[in-house]
Amino acid sequence: MLRELNIAPGDQIQKDEIDELLHFNKRRLLNMQLFSQVDFTMCHDANDTIDLQFNVSEIFFWIPKPVFSLADRNFNVWWYEQNNRLDRTNIGLELTRLNFRGRNERIGGTVQVGYNKFFDVFYKIPYVDKNLKHGIGLSATYQTGREINFKTDSNKIKFFRRDEYPYRNFQTEFTYTYRPAYAWIHEVNLNYNYLSITEELFNKNPDFFHGKKKLNFFELKYTLRFNNTDVRVYPIHGLETKFQVSKKGLGFDKDVNQFILYNETSFYKRLINNLSMAL
Question: Could you tell me which of 226, 219, 224 has the C-alpha nearest to residue 255?
Answer without folding.
Answer: 219
